[in-house]
Automatic annotation (TrEMBL):
Signal peptide location: none
Name of this protein: S-adenosyl-L-methionine-dependent methyltransferase MMAR
Molecular function in Gene Ontology: methyltransferase activity
Keywords linked to the UniProt accession: Methyltransferase, Transferase
Biological processes, Gene Ontology terms: methylation
Gene3D superfamilies named among the record's database cross-references: Vaccinia Virus protein VP39
SUPFAM superfamilies per record: S-adenosyl-L-methionine-dependent methyltransferases
This protein's record includes keyword Transit peptide: no
Length: 112
């Protein structure tokens, strides 16, 4: 995976950044979000012709999965390589209630 860029988006499942931003070639975008919301939003975006930029990969990790770290690694995330993380505070998904605990968890995940 040399040369690949890593972006991790922790969102509510309706994030359009993967479709509307001009990502550098070889960018791998990991979207961690609620499965049900992500599937509906992805279907609607595909329905209007939205596409991930050529040369990029877009991978979804369900927020509900029991081990997000393991799932990220299984899909190719490398914590020892530079990555960009964007965190969208998600009211109603349990993210706000323990925001500091989760932020600490995800900060440590970058180093694994």
């Amino acid at each position: 995976m040399d040369g690949h860029k890593q972006v991790v988006l922790l969102t509510d499942g309706m994030d359009t950044r993967p479709y509307r931003l001009k990502w550098p070639t070889s960018t791998i975008i990991f979207d961690v979000s609620p499965e049900r919301v992500f599937k509906k939003a992805a279907s609607e975006l595909e329905g209007v012709g939205a596409k991930i930029p050529r040369g990029c990969m877009f991978l979804h990790i369900p927020l509900e999965c029991p081990n997000i770290q393991q799932s990220l690694h299984a899909k190719g995330f490398h914590g020892n390589r530079p990555s960009i993380w964007a965190i969208q505070v998600m009211k109603g998904f349990g993210f706000c209630s323990n925001y500091h605990l989760r932020l600490n968890y995800y900060t440590n995940l970058q180093q694994s």
